[in-house]
Task: inverse folding
């Protein structure tokens, strides 16, 4: 099995939504990165994204090295075989389709040495049910959040057959690259953050569909209460400050009943039917018509940098 000091080259399979940000992070950590994607157009977009992202990091004074040096660590391969050749770790981040992942992993099973760490970024699939049995002793999940070059969190979980040391190496590597790596004891669909967000979504759309409030009111309520508080206390420590007995009594008194959905929330269906898919179409719950979308994204990233810098201060010196 590879140790942390053994890892020099990382192969990133997939260069779409997540690939460029993940590749940038590994390159900023000092690793040689080779990327692969099926499409030439996707490859060109990935190169543009990498350059734009590095420009943003440079403007925010977040680079320890010149951006050209970091970009120089990233290369592109035309085939999977070329991409993974000599790699010590593989990060798979292709489309979330079981058939596509199965095809890729069957190919990897025939060409990847047994000591190479293979990590999937899958968010919805149980990759351990998809990969060939031969790969399970070297298979883990490193689940990133978008935009991956900005959001610190990466959730790590190993297969039952993989040694604990492999997950520990992945956590150490991610921390070396500046990420907040959270090690899970065992796999569950949605991991930690996505499951919590899905619970919020259930309540959000119940409130909107039943006329209690609108999207803007929900955002204001969250931004002015538990979200900034969570930057300081998290979720579980907040219970300690409020009193474990209070949370106990809330459960005991059944003071909350989660909404049960047997249909798609109407507000979501209306947005889909209207083609209002969010920032990528110019309109969702908010209207971005006439705005420079790339400028809006850059502004988002700038504000996220500020929030996470402050959050890191709280995490490094907890209450």
Result:
């Amino acid at each position: 099995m590879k140790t942390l000091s053994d890892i020099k080259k990382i192969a990133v399979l997939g260069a779409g939504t997540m690939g460029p940000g993940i590749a940038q992070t590994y390159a900023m950590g000092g690793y040689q990165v080779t990327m692969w994607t099926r499409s030439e157009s996707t490859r060109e977009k990935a190169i543009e994204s990498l350059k734009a992202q590095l420009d943003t990091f440079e403007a925010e004074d977040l680079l320890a090295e010149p951006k050209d040096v970091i970009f120089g660590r990233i290369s592109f391969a035309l085939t999977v075989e070329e991409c993974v050749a000599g790699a010590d770790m593989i990060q798979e981040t292709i489309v979330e389709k079981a058939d596509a992942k199965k095809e890729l992993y069957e190919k990897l099973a025939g060409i990847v040495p047994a000591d190479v760490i293979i990590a999937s970024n899958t968010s919805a699939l149980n990759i351990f049910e998809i990969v060939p049995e031969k790969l399970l002793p070297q298979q883990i999940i490193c689940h990133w959040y978008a935009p991956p070059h900005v959001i610190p969190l990466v959730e790590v979980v190993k297969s039952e057959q993989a040694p604990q040391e492999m997950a520990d190496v992945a956590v150490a590597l991610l921390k070396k690259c500046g990420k907040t790596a959270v090690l899970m004891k065992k796999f569950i669909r949605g991991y930690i953050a996505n499951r919590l967000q899905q619970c919020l979504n259930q309540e959000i759309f119940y409130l909107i569909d039943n006329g209690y409030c609108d999207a803007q009111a929900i955002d204001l309520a969250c931004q002015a209460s538990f979200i900034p508080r969570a930057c300081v206390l998290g979720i579980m420590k907040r219970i300690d400050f409020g009193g474990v007995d209070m949370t106990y009594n809330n459960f005991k008194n059944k003071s909350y009943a989660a909404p049960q959905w047997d249909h798609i929330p109407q507000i979501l269906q209306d947005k889909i039917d209207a083609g209002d898919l969010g920032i990528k179409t110019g309109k969702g719950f908010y209207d971005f018509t006439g705005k420079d979308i790339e400028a809006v994204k850059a502004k988002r990233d700038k504000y996220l940098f500020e929030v996470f810098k402050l959050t890191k201060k709280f995490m490094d010196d907890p209450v």
Summary: The CA atoms of residues 13 and 92 lie 5 Å apart. The chain has a mean pLDDT of 96.
